[in-house]
Design goal:
- The chain is mainly alpha-helical.
- It has a domain of about 55 residues: Up-down Bundle (Single alpha-helices involved in coiled-coils or other helix-helix interfaces), CATH 1.20.5.
- The chain is built from 3 helices and 2 strands.
- It has a two-stranded antiparallel sheet.
Amino acid sequence: MGFGGISIWQLLIILVIIVLLFGTKRLRNIGTDLGSAIRGFRSSIKDGEADAAEDATFAAEARKDPAAVSNQTSAAQPAADAKPASTTTQNSSGSDKI
């Protein structure tokens, strides 16, 4: 008995049929693509875990000293309430001209 009621001989027959259908070169390419996809998935999971750990650290610091965290965030963000310079001019009729 093999996997879930399939014997080793049935698995070998399925493997031979797959090799005959796709060929060894195409199977090698599929394996390479699958391996790179798995590596990309694992690296994105590690990045997500690192971001989550950073957010947890930031939240813990915010609970300890909220004033210090607000000073850090306000220094890191540009002033949002500053008005940009106007690029339009008004002529004598009062309409905007670009």
